[in-house]
Amino acid sequence: MKLINIKVVIFDCDGVMFDTTESNMAYYNRILEHFNMPRMTAEQFAYTHMHTVDASLDHLFKNKEIRKKADEIRKTLNYLPLIQYMEIEPGLKPLLNKLRPEYKTAIATNRSDTMNRVLLEHGLSGYFDLVISARDVDRPKPFPDPLLKIMNYFNVPSSNMVYIGDSEVDEQASLAAGVPFIAYNNPSLLTDIHIKSLSEIERLL
Question: What is the pLDDT of residues 58-74, one digit of tens each?
Fold first, then answer.
């Protein structure tokens, strides 16, 4: 399958640009351990992988009082030392070098305040024309707001953009925004385009 007239290529961060399993597990387990709670289950990790930190804490802490305290603990934790454990996906930099400057590149992520530092630490500063995090929109994914903001910024129709994601919230945001969706390493997602390597993006464009 070939994508026609694409002008903007948009990436999710966790699970697409980076394998963040180790760093995200460590982050949330730190908070759980503070309350002597068990480490995250596979189901809990799958949820936190997709959602914002606020939604993730809501999911992990059902008790309102503990949830409030968990937010206080979260604010004292420094995620930055964990960035080094994020593993950049093979082929990301070569792909970005080939895409630019013909295509505009952007990020739509449910991360909040760590994205700029992530790009800096992994040598990706300057590779993206626009970065939209959860704090840049009123409603993060699965709502379409991040993609709509990117669409408005570049002043292109949804059909001229493509979004590469790996989760249900990415799929839902794309569908709601009318943006063609490429599923990365997740065959359960409902789309006509599935890839296992970022290098496959070249042939699609």
Answer: 999 999 999 999 999 99
Q: Within this chain, do residues 45 and 126 fall inside the same structural domain, yes or no?
A: no
* Domain count within the chain: 2
Instruction: Please report where in the chains the tokens 């400057």 appear, as a residue.
Output: 101
DSSP string, 25-65: HHHHHHHHHHTTPPPPPHHHHHHHHHS-HHHHHHHH--SHH
* Four-point Cα dihedral 101, 126, 76, 47, nearest 10: 20
CB atoms within 10 A of CB 78: 7
58 lies in the same domain as 150:
no
Same-domain check for residues 70 and 123: no
Q: Evaluate whether 113 touches 135 at the Cβ level (below 8 Å).
A: yes
Under a CB-based contact definition with an 8 Å cutoff, are residues 151 and 157 in contact?
yes
Which element (helix H / strand E) includes 185? none
Question: Which pLDDT tens digit goes with each residue over 4-29?
Answer: 999 999 999 999 999 999 999 999 99
The range of the structural domain enclosing residue 55 comes to 21-83
Distance CA 6, CA 107 (A): 16
